[in-house]
Structure formats: structure tokens, C-alpha cells
Amino acid sequence: MNTLFDKIWDAHTVKVLDGNSCVLYIDRQYIHEVTSPQAFAGLRSRGIDVFRLHQVTASPDHNIPTRNQHLPIRDTQSATQVATLERNCAENGITIFPINTKNNGIIHVIGPQTGLTQPGMTIVCGDSHTSTHGALGCVAFGIGTSEVEMALASQCILQAKPKSMRINVEGELKQGVCSKDIILHIIAKLGTGGGTGYFVEFAGSTIRSLSIEARMTICNMSIEMGARGGMIAPDQVTFDYLKDREFAPKGKEWDEAVARWSLLRSDDDAVFDKEVTIDAADIEPMITYGTNPGMGIAVSDVIPKADDGDVAAKTSHKKALAYMGFTEGEKMEGKRVDYVFVGSCTNGRIEDLRAFTQAVRGRKKAEGVTVWIVPGSKEVERMAIEEGLQEILREAGFELRQPGCSACLAMNEDKIPAGKYCIATSNRNFEGRQGQGARTMLAGPLVAAAAAVTGVVTDPRKL
User: Fold this and answer.
1) What is the pLDDT, as a whole number, of residue 264?
2) Which of 221, 252, 274 is the last residue of a domain?
3) How far apart are CA 418 and CA 410, in angstroms?
4) Run of H or E including 456
5) Residues with Cβ < 8 Å from 342, sequence gap 6 or more?
6) Tens of pLDDT, residues 205-228
7) Which residues lie across from 298 on neighbouring strands?
8) Which residue segment(s) compose the domain that 430 sits in?
9) pLDDT attached to residue 307
């Protein structure tokens, strides 16, 4: 009667303490340049070494530029953070994928891509979107800087066990609907607090039909509805994805691993603390209109009115619309777009770039729109070039940049100017997330492509 989450969590519980807190063993820790410096400083001040070096992997991603990566980083703070990560890894013997090397990229893209992320693992990183790795059947979640230090020192963290939720998505998706639309639909339906206190397993025929990269998009944004993390049971799609990847098991060890991984699923009689079912037929291409990921609607809908019965929600709703320059009852279609950003740990994988490129093939970038297409890793960049995507994009007036977190967050050179509208395939649309005063509309690669060639919010099915 155990859920998949229970099976993995309980197998990694070293000790249960009073008040539901657990000492949880961590199989893999990922680190980047933003949340690790204080953790290493803490270790040094206490005279403690990193406990298990081979289970820690680093990659700079948040602050790195997406142009001229062969040159020194111009921004002083970014350069310092990246240099500090490299120094800390060198001093401690930790594997790092430096900028402009073959495995560099966004940490949540390169983990699965290299085969370091594997089913049944517990995975942490000082980054909220660590939940991405749950797409391969892992218990993966973000942690704070003090916990980063704790994991480096002991390969364990202290953590309260969340409740379990299963979200079933059943049926066939409509034309023009992608995995980003699925998760935006779910968050809009459940709200940004709908998953608070839970670890979510996504299941159902629709989820099983998705590729691993599409599943990563869904697990990536599970935290945007307040969940501790999201996961999907591994299956043959998972095994096919991992086979022959650089750090995946090989030979006899591969066969043994697949036999173990095949057992990782919720029991038929497993009881979840909460269960939700979504009809795939109800999902349309989505876009957000406000300042949190739950403020999402079908791209062809009008901006809804606030709930008059909830004073706080109504105030928040009006504040969000004022920031965005929108009003209730307006259609989203036809609204001006100044920037389009395709990338991030949500939608910066090769399938996302393929989808965008296919949609704009034979068309031209709209005049006056700035488009940043940023691969999530050097490997994605390499594949985009080898498959001819870069050339198709160039012919349409687009530029393929170099990998990094880019315009997902205002921590590097790729910032959206104040007052400008950006359709982003990233994960958050908070005030100032992409730059002070920037106005962000979240969407999938197809909605982004439609805007990039029309210059306005457009239903991709109308192209």
C-alpha cells in the first residue's frame, strides 16, 4: 500500500526524529555558483571536509553570459561567483563542468542529460527547481544554503516528510498543446498553494505518453503550486532515455539497474493523502496574465475577474493586473510582445528548441521583437547546430545563443527592460523576476514561437 514517494523516502531515511523530522540520506547533490559559496565558507570555518566527493557535481549556470563565453565574464559580481565555485570545487576535489566545456549547462538540464540523475535517487540542490529530476523517478527538491552545507558535510539533511498527492492526467492532448500547457493548466486549476505540504506524483495515460523532456517540464513547475516536489514513475521511456548516457550504468550493471528501477512504482492499492484527476481534453495552449504562475488562462480566453468573496485575493488580483497593465475582461490574444525568451531549466532542452524551430520554419521574426533562444546546455547547443536548427532559425531572423539560465532571472546580462512585455518559456512571472519593471507572460515553446513571428500574443494553432 505504499506510494512511489514513500518507497524512495523510507529507503533513504537514516533516522526518524520527534515531530516527523527525518535524517534523510542524499544520493546526489548538485551545486551552482549562487547558493554554494556560503556553504563552503561554513565548512572551512568549522574545519570540515566534503564527506562524499563523488556524489557532488557542480556547474555554473545562473550568472554566466550567453554570448562570447570564450571571453572573461564582464560583470564583476558574476565573475566572482563563478570563480569562487571553481575554486571551491578545486580545493575540495569536486567534479565541475566549467563554462564553455562540453558538459556545462543549467544544472537541472545536465543532470539527466549526462545520466547522473537516475531513478530511485534522492537529489538536492540549492535551487528550487531541483524538482525537475523527479521526471526520472527521483525524490528531488530544493534546499537552503544551510542545508547545502549540511549535505556537503554529511551526505544527509534534516527534513520533514511531506504528505503525498497524485495528479492523474488522462486522455489525448489537443493539437498545439504541450507539456508546459499541462502544468500551467494544473497550477491555474489548483492555485499556487494547491500543492503546499505535498510531494506530487504525476500519473495517468497522458503523462505516460510524454517524453522524458516533457515530463521534466511538468516536474520542474510542480513547486509553483506550492508542492515540495514532483515525480513520475520510471518506465521504458525512462530507461530508453538513460541508456548509453555518459554516467549511466553500463553492461551487466545496466541490466541490474533496470531490474531495480522497474520496481519503482506506486502499489495498485497505494493510498494518497490527496488525489486529483485532470481531463487532457480540457487543456488548451496556455499563457499567464498576472504575476504568479497560477494566473494562467487559455491563450484564446479573456482575463478573468477577481473573486469578490475573497478581499485579499481581489486586492492581489488588481495589483497584479496594474503591474502588467492589463484589465479584467480583455482578450490576451493580440496583446503586444516586446521580447520572447525560449530557454531555462523548464523549456531549454532540445525538444523545446525543435518545437520552436518547426513552428517558425519558413516564417520571419516579427519586426520590433527581440528573441533570445538559449539552449539549456552545451550538448543541446551542439545538437541544435548539428540538426540544422541554428540555420533554420538564422534564416527566420533568430539567433541561437550559448547556454545558461539567461533571462529566466535577472542575475546575468539577459534582462528585460522595465515596462516591456516578454513571453517566457521559463517558470516564474513574479514582479521583477526578469528585470526591474519587466512584465512576464509564461507560455510554452509553441505560444512563444507564434508571438515571435507575429509580434503579439497568438494562438499557435492559428499559424
Assistant:
1) 98
2) 274
3) 12
4) none
5) 348, 352, 353, 356, 371, 372, 373, 374, 425, 445, 448, 449
6) 999 999 999 999 999 999 999 999
7) 286
8) 287-462
9) 80
DSSP letter for 66, please.
Answer: S
Handedness of CA 406, 210, 247, 264 (dihedral sign): positive
CATH code of the domain in which 446 resides = 3.30.499.10
Give residue 269's identity as a one-letter amino acid code. Answer: D
Tell me the helix, strand and coil percentages in the chain, rounded to 5.
40, 20, 45
Q: What is the pTM of this model?
A: 0.97
Looking only at the bridges linking them, the beta strands covering 296-298 and 139-142 are unpaired
Domains held by the chain: number: 2
Total Cβ atoms within 10 A of residue 127:
24
| CA proximity to 73, closest of 371, 411, 416, 407 | 411
Cell numbers describing residue 262: 522497474
So what's the pLDDT on residue 320? 96
**340, 360 Cβ separation under 8 angstroms:** no
Could you tell me which residues are beta bridge partners of residue 297? 287
At 411, list the grid cell: 542575475
The predicted structure's pLDDT at residue 151: 98
pLDDT for the residue 415? 95
Residue 152 pLDDT level (bands cut at 50, 70, 90): very high
Residues with Cβ < 8 Å from 298, sequence gap 6 or more? Answer: 284, 285, 286, 287
User: Is residue 359 classed as helix, strand or coil in its secondary structure?
Assistant: helix
C-alpha–C-alpha distance, residues 166 and 75, integer Å: 44
Is pLDDT of 265 > 90? yes
Please state, in angstroms and as integers, the Cα–Cα distance from residue 31 to each residue in 2, 131, 389, following that order: 31, 14, 30
Task: Give the residues across from 28 on adjacent strands.
Answer: 123
Residue 309 pLDDT greater than 80, yes or no:
no
